[in-house]
Amino acid sequence: TTMASNKAPTWLDTIGKRYWRSLSPLVEIKNESVREQLAQLCDHWSIFRECVKHIQKDGIKVINDLGTMKNHPCLATKWKAQAEINRLTKLLGLNEQAKQEVDELEEFLS
């Protein structure tokens, strides 16, 4: 099995590339499939952060063109991004790794 590139894909935006740099040491990028999954995770993180920024600025409820109060349009996108983040994090084994690191830290501190 050939190791895939550890370098972030060029199409990721700044937030996605920053997230890639923080996660890539935790993931064994053993093939292009794993690399693509990590890239998707980073992309969804960027989408999530953009949605959070807009919701924080505008509020959860906004008034549409008809004068009706509605949920912010970014809420649905944020929820979809969160679902994909959770799915990809689990798929890449990052949930278990993060839990193990917390357990090791707690053991060290006790």
Q: Describe the largest sheet.
A: 2 strands, antiparallel
- Uncertain segments are none
Question: Which term fits the overall shape?
Answer: elongated
**Number of helical stretches of at least 4 residues:** 4
Radius of gyration: 17 Å
Number of distinct beta strands? 2
Strand order in space, largest sheet: 1-2
- Mean pLDDT, nearest integer? 88
N-end to C-end Cα span: 41 Å
SSE string, helix = H, strand = E? Answer: HHEEHH
What report would you give on this structure?
The protein is mainly alpha-helical and 110 residues long. It contains four helices and two strands; from the N terminus they run ααββαα. The chain has helices spanning 14-23, 32-58, 73-91, 94-109; strands at residues 61-63, 69-71. It has a two-stranded antiparallel sheet with strand order 1-2. A hairpin with a 5-residue loop joins strand 1 (61-63) and strand 2 (69-71). The chain is elongated and about 55 Å long.
In short:
By secondary structure, this protein is mainly alpha-helical. The protein is built from four helices and two strands. It has a two-stranded antiparallel ribbon.
